[in-house]
Amino acid sequence: MGKDSDSIKSYSGEWTETHLRHLLRRTLFGVSRKDLEFFRGKSMDDCVAVLLTNSISTEPMINYYGDPEVAFGDPVVQSTEGKGDLEKLRIAYLKAYWVGNIINQHRSIAEKMVLFWHNHFAVEFSTVKDSRYGYKYLNTLRQNALGNFKYLARQITTDPCMLVYLNGNLNNKSAPNENYGRELQELFTMGKGPDSHYTEEDVKMAAKVLSGWKDNKVSIDSFFDPAYHETNDKVFSSFYNNHVIKGRAGIDGAAETDELIDMICSETESSRFICRKLYRWFVNSTIDEQVEHNVIVPLAKLLVKSKYDVKPVLRAILTSDFFYQPFLLGGMIKGPVDFFAGLFREFDVEFSEDKTKLYKQWWRISVLLGQLGQDIGDPPAVAGWPAYYEYPLYYKNWINSEVLSMRDILTRLLSFPTESDKTLMFDFAKFAKGLKNPAEPRALLSESIELCCGIMPGPSQINYLEKVLSSDQGTGPEWSEIWSSYIADDTSKEVVEKVKHRLAKVFGIIFALPEFQLM
Amino acid sequence: MMNRRSFIKNSAAVAPFIVAFNPLAAAQSKFLQGVTSDNIRRNKVLVLIQLNGGNDGLNTLIPLDKYSILSEARKNILIPDNKVLKLNDSSSFGFHPSMKLLQSMYHDKLLTLIPGVGYPNTDFSHFHGINIKYTANIGEKEIRSGWVGRYLEHQYPNYPNGYPAQSTDGPPAMRIGTVSPKIAEGTEQDLSIGITNITDFDNFYSGIDKDPVSNDLGGMNVATIRAISRQIEVYGPIIKSFVNRQNTLSKLYPAPEKNNLADQLKIVARLIGSGLNTPFYVVRQLGYDTHGEQVDQSDTTLGRHADLLADLSQAIAAFQDDLFLMGKQDDVIGMTFSEFGRRIASTDSYGTDHGTAESVIMFGTKVKGGIIGSSPELPTKATQDDNLPIQYDFRSLYASVLSGWFGATDDLIKTVITETPDAPISLFKS
Q1: What's the DSSP call for residue A130?
Q2: CATH code (residue B116)
Q3: Alpha carbons A446 and B91: distance in angstroms, whole number
Q4: How far is the C-alpha of A456 from the C-alpha of B218, rounded, in Å?
Q5: Residue at B393 is within a domain
Q6: C-alpha to C-alpha distance for B362 and B425, rounded to whole angstroms
Q7: Most CB atoms within 10 A, among A149, A293, A301, B164?
Q8: SS3 per-residue string spanning B203-239
Q9: Which of A381, A396, A399 is closest, CB to CB, to B126?
Q10: Cβ count near A369 (within 10 Å)
């Protein structure tokens, strides 16, 4: 048994571009060249300070998708509930809007934290079936992305989307519905870690505390209805020090919910639970005794000290010695959002200027994400994605035979679009132009691979790539010739096609490599 | 729940793919080498259907002899007496009205129903619940392998090396749709391939894997992905060519994308019909977590649960019909499983909370037919705290399937399923 540490050791080694790319990959979605240029030359502390600024788009979701109830170009926030399939359409475009925010993310960890909170306080839009609730929920996550955990947990507990999703709105004093009372403790605040010993009785008591919250489709909000609230005292188990939440009649009953969240979060185990989730999200899936004592315990102390503000914990993680261990590089398998949003950002894929087309492009990406296993807004269950909780596979859950081949098919589709499908594609020629030495195959490959692969592929793979790029394995013209004629005249359609075709072939291979799947 | 022991296991499993780092796996695999697989019964297939979310067995197979208790406990979701589908050989039970197709399969002796399947001290968490069913282990939550995987690694020693051994060999297990690979994880290796549709593996590029991998997390991930790539390269073309040899024959299937489970089973039927030798298929139907709005408020025979059971019945009936038309009916059985059943008493919100025992449905020409077990003992006034009693431990059921269907020996079963509290259950026609 190790001894609990009081503090986290900061990283004090050399700060290289490898370290910077690791930091950016884990906190943003992929590494764009512009980001790399921006951060190059800054110290670790300065980079982390920039990433921890709460910079997030506040542009609302706009009707560019043919919503019959909202004027074209207007925000959709206060719309009335859609009839027929309208809510389905809106939910589809809410996801599209979310994709847009991710792709256009600022130089901040905020978008990644939004996804973290979504994975943590998971809801399924398609179950809730009301896009307005989904939008409100998403905005709550966005506004609190770098905020206070306790405050967010309290907001989410009575968020209308969550009330519907986990049946909190149906939880009445006469027949309590335990769903939320259970998941609040098991998944949202306490977990089932080594020192979590809440009981089935605590689940029932929590359900009683939470009885009376209802949603309102007109105001798109929640409210507390004392008529449905259980007013008896709620007695919790010894795990919660036999705490009694005094039953309150009338509108005061709502305050019992605040007391419940306070009670749960005052347990040390709760702070450790949140820190383990952050660790698995940003660092590594394995939490052994050493990590528990040296990392989780001190992080949890920091969280308690900051009264559950997450920023100090994030700063401690991202400037820590453990975060930059060489052993961890490439230790995560990219989830579909990291995979796809990363691709679009790394290769500067241009999106349409036309807003209707733009929303459609984002929508397409959200569908692809779903096919690859990360349907944002619709995780598979209330526990979020198995990649972050399912022992022992964890991130390996993102890859299996069907998904791996689908990733391959989709990237090839974007590299060689068919006639009917040209709405989104990579412009590898333009990308190559921005590299330091694109005429030289080895240099082109190194710079590109460093940007998008979690670790470098081995020498035989690089040699093979070089052969393909140099001469299509001896079957085509030399790359240096193609490239120089392209630089001399980039208006010749024939030349442009040659360049693009060769590069698409090379990048098609890179995107299929195991190393590309890592971050 | 994590404890000291699982912490230690956790750290041992940092390198699950490198046996030398994992003393537990190394010890077990050594042991496995001593087991021969002489007793494989070739060409027997088990199709597992996961009912995701926890199916309400009491509204699936309704104990009519307890109707007055049910009408107290679950008044708002109760199926009217006269709407329950009756069985020709039992007055104790009847089917949900959505299950006409399964009712007729039952009358044709193609269906076995086992109410009251579970285990002591049910874990009401979805995630632990399903993990327990996948692993057939109730003691330790963080066990790596699934029961199907542990069985298959005996039948396919040293997998994936040396396979396919015959030209008709498919992967040991296939998952259609989005079933977790956990159920087919062996102690070291996933023994399944998952597909979503039959064009999945077209033109797959797997990279050059000559270079050694580094001894860190990145290197281990590369090794994992390379292993999956190799499986795709080996089995992708086989699956594709076999599925193309056999068309769907049954007319009972709904149009594509109307019934997701039926779409999945259609692929399974084609693969079985083509002569592919894969003993396990796992498919999944989503949506059974019916805390609220399980039924329509105005008509309890309609609503979410009714739709789910209608899809389930249609999918199974069409699949069985397909097997008959392909002449494969005697080679295949099916079995449902769910993380748990639901509570006796309903919620105010026309639904049911997580409960204990599930009602297992088995089908095929070789299952015995009829009901195994008795109508559940219910308290006269069931409250939210009351749960269904367990009649059969699911581990004993799985063990009985392995012995009765695949002919697994007792010794083999002991290594696959460590605890079998009940005596073997007689499930098959002799």
Answers
A1: -
A2: 3.40.720
A3: 74
A4: 10
A5: yes
A6: 13
A7: A149
A8: CCCCCCCCCCCCCCHHHHHHHHHHHHHHHHHHHHHHH
A9: A381
A10: 23
In angstroms, rounded to a whole number, what is the distance separating the alpha carbons of residues B317 and B430?
23
In a domain, B309, yes or no: yes
Q: What is the pLDDT of residues A350-403, one digit of tens each?
A: 899 999 999 999 998 998 898 888 999 999 889 999 999 988 889 998 988 878
CB A27 within 8 A of CB A112: yes
Map tokens 């929508």 to a residue.
A363
Task: Tally A–B CB contacts below 8 A.
Answer: 201
Question: Which ipTM value was assigned to this complex?
Answer: 0.94
Q: Which residues of A are less than 8 Å from B202 in CB distance? A: 405, 409
Residue A168 at interface with chain B, using a CB cutoff of 8 Å: no
How far apart (Å, rounded) are the C-alpha atoms in residues B223 and B188?
13
In a domain? residue B209: no
Which chain B residues contact residue A464 at CB under 8 A? 208
Helix ranges, A168-305 (H): 179-183, 200-209, 255-265, 268-282, 289-291, 297-305
Q: Which of A290, A333, A404 sits opposite B229 (nearest CB)?
A: A404
Q: Report the amino acid identity of residue A102.
A: I
pTM recorded for the entire structure: 0.79
pLDDT at residue A414 in the model? 79
B20 part of a folded domain: no
Q: How many Cβ atoms sit within 10 Å of the Cβ of residue A47? A: 23
Whether the pLDDT of residue B159 is over 80: the answer is yes
Residue B303, pLDDT above cutoff 70: yes
**B375-402 pLDDT per residue, tens:** 999 999 998 889 999 999 999 999 999 9
What domain count does chain B have?
Answer: 1
Strands B111-118 and B392-393: parallel
Q: Cβ–Cβ of B384/A326 closer than 8 Å?
A: no
pLDDT (0 to 100) of residue A2: 53
Q: Could you list the residue range(s) of the whole structural domain that residue B267 is in?
A: 34-198+244-416
